[in-house]
Each structure stands twice: as C-alpha cells, then as structure tokens.
C-alpha cells in the first residue's frame, strides 16, 4: 500500500495527532440564542476521529462580537455550560478540540448589538456591500471607531473567552484573525484608518492583534493557542496593499510568543482548464514560522497529500468537504468518492438537514 501523507501521524506540541486532516472552523448558524445546542454533539462527533484535530465554528467573545444569526458565544456562563457536553463527546472519541474565538467588528450591525448600538471597529467606515461567497446576505450599519482607551477592554474580552473555552473543556483556542473580522480589520491598511498607535505602520496595525495573542497566551499558555490569518484575502472589503509583508510580520511576531500553530488561508483560487489551482503562496510564512503550520482553502485529497508530502505545510484544514463528508479521513484513506456539499444549507438553522444528515460510507458508519 502506498503511504498517504495526509494520514501520517504528527506531533503538534503536546498533542499527538494520528493524521493531518483538520476540521476547519465552520460557522453553521444552528446555535439558537447564541448558545451552542445539543445537536452540535452529533455534528462534531460525526467528524471526530481518534487523534484527529478539530477547530470549532467561530464563537463570539462578548456581547458586541456577534454579527450573524444563531452563532454561538462563549462569554456567558450558560454558553460555557452548553459547550461542555459537546467537548466531552469529542474527547470521548479521542479528538483534540480547539475553540475559535471571534469578534465580527464592523461585519456586525445594530441589530446584533446590545441596546441597538453601532458595532465597533478600528474605523467608522462600513464594509462595502460585497459578501462572502457562501454567507447569507446581511444588512450592515456603519461601525463606531473604538477609542484608544477602549481597546484594552476588547483585548480582555478575548482573554476571558479563552479562559471560558478552557473551562468548557477545549484543549486550546484559535484566534480568528482572518476573513475580514475585527482583528483583520485592524491589520489591513485599506480598512485601518487610525492615527493613534493602533494605526498607520504595519507594527501599529498589528498591535491590537498581537495584544490579543499576548493576553490569551498569558491566560491559558501559548502551547494551547493557534492563530488564523488570511493576509491575501479581501473578504468584507478587507485587504492589504502588501499581503506578503503583513503575513511575514505576523508570523515572525507569533514566533516571539511561541504560539502552538499558525493557520493560514490561501489566496483565492483560480480555475485553469476546469481545475482549481491553489496559488501556494504561503511557503515563505511556513518557512519563517517555528510552530505547526496549517494551510486551508480549496484543498482536496490530491492537493492535500501533495503539500504535506512536500513539507509545504504540516496540516491541512478542510471546510466544505468536511461539511458534506463527516468521515472525510476514512474516505481519503480509501480514496472513496465524496458526497457533494449543498451550499443552500450551510447556514440554515435546521438541526439536522444539511448538518448531521450527510451519509457515511457504509464501511465507516458510526
Ligand atoms: C459554511 C462556512 C462557514 C465558515 N465559517 C468559518 C468560521 O467560523 N471561521 C473561519 O475562520 N472560517 C470560516 N469559514 C472558512 C473555512 O474555514 C475555510 O477556510 C474555507 O471554507 C475554505 O476551505 P475549503 O475550500 O476547504 O472549504 C467558513 C466557510 C464556510 C463554507
């Protein structure tokens, strides 16, 4: 039998992973009242393998963090308690489970904010009306620019959320510094128009993101902290004029904190002769980063095996394919056909349809 790079074991810090196929963070909009629901137990355990690594859907860090319907939070006692049985069930099957911590910043709107206030951001400029590929259409209202003296409070919200995640049983947390949300709004020069120490130079724009890293690492230990970034992306009208420099700066700074992993989203894919081409622009970052490197965005079995085999990345996170194939590692092992995903149910609130009803291969039925 030919060795399958994606199925080789890997030691990520103190975690012994049995393979390289990671469940990408995936918002599924089925957490009513911002509280994770019991149906998430089945969803996550379906996607758990012994020694497999899972990242949760983005969880809001505070009552100003939310920006979409039915997304979970992790700032109240009730929310923490609701995560516990989900995490326990994943652990019972031998999975390693991190919680992605999120603040949506200006991607939110007054309807999601306490007392109908404006969402907060580094800027008072609203995002343009361009949408994430698969995200539901959202009405947005202009944000309020955070005052300099308010920023430590937001940093502290991430710290407390990390503490809550550990209390809920998660093995660690991932800071959501990607896809046009609050942390990335600060990082990128077409959005961050501040004139204080949190805006202007690359160093200043990364100050808030790195303060979050420092706070969270101090709270739960850097060996339980991962960071997700997407320097090349332009989601939510959030882009940078020099993504290579931004990515390299962040990665080098992350080295100073000794964080466990860096998770980077590939640039958008182009399609050449009917096949998606992953741009593979992450190699300089991968080389510069001391910890575990995770690549995401557009990977299939063949591409994943290639990049792990070549040492371009340590792990590969799968999003849409893992939504529709709960037994993705098994299918990759057997090179079995994959279920197609149905975009129309990515964010619908049904607790079963498009969520836990994708079929398993007969041979890997739970
Ligand atoms: C339904 C859906 C929800 C997503 N939710 C999140 C999220 O909560 N946090 C995040 O960092 N990325 C999120 N993403 C992005 C994915 O993690 C991943 O980067 C993206 O789907 C590209 O990988 P893929 O080609 O393997 O699907 C989401 C993507 C989809 C399709």
From TrEMBL:
InterPro entries linked: Aldolase_TIM, OxRdtase_FMN_N, Oye-like
Keyword Oxidoreductase on entry: yes
Key words, A-Z: Fatty acid biosynthesis, Fatty acid metabolism, Flavoprotein, FMN, Lipid biosynthesis, Lipid metabolism, NADP, Oxidoreductase, Oxylipin biosynthesis
Chain intervals for the UniProt region annotation (Disordered): 110-144
Cofactor: FMN
Highest taxon of the lineage: Eukaryota
A GO BP entry: jasmonic acid biosynthetic process
GO molecular function terms noted in the UniProt entry: FMN binding; oxidoreductase activity
Compositional bias ranges of the Polar residues kind: 110-124
CDD domains: OYE_like_FMN
Domain NADH:flavin oxidoreductase/NADH oxidase N-terminal: 6-337
Family that this chain belongs to: Belongs to the NADH:flavin oxidoreductase/NADH oxidase family.
Stated name of the protein: 12-oxophytodienoate reductase 11 isoform X1
